[in-house]
Design goal:
globular, 4 helices, Transcription Regulator spoIIAA, 5 strands, alpha/beta
Length: 122
């Protein structure tokens, strides 16, 4: 499940990712706020707070891959993780950042305020 975080504003958008992600999560929870922000902002910044993350469904993973072009406007990304964070997934985010040129930084889940501050800083 993907939930838009209430502190999102002005091209800085945060999402809580809880459990296993599906195609519906991407289409209804992630893409609409990102697309809306891209309409009004040249560059956007994203925050992903991972909670009980269980990976992607096969269709969800494919949609994630296919929708990467929508994230060309992303210049910075904060990823908040807990103790259950899997090394492969953090590696995947790093590869994605390298391919796209997005600046990415990892935070612990108890550092939500610091992650928002970093995203909003110049």
């Amino acid at each position: 499940m993907i939930t838009l975080l209430p502190d999102s504003s002005d091209g800085v958008i945060g999402f809580l990712i809880d459990g296993q992600l599906t195609d519906e999560d991407y289409r209804q929870g992630l893409l609409p706020p990102v697309e809306e922000a891209i309409k009004t902002q040249e560059k956007i910044r994203l925050l992903f707070q991972m909670k009980n993350f269980e990976g992607w469904t096969a269709h969800g993973a494919w949609d994630d891959f296919m929708n990467w072009p929508k994230f060309r406007s992303v210049e910075r990304m904060a990823v908040l993780v807990d103790e259950n964070w899997h090394e492969f997934t953090s590696w995947l985010f790093r590869v994605y950042a390298t391919i796209t040129g997005i600046e990415i930084r990892f935070f612990k889940n108890n550092q939500l305020s610091e992650a928002w501050d970093w995203l909003r800083s110049q």
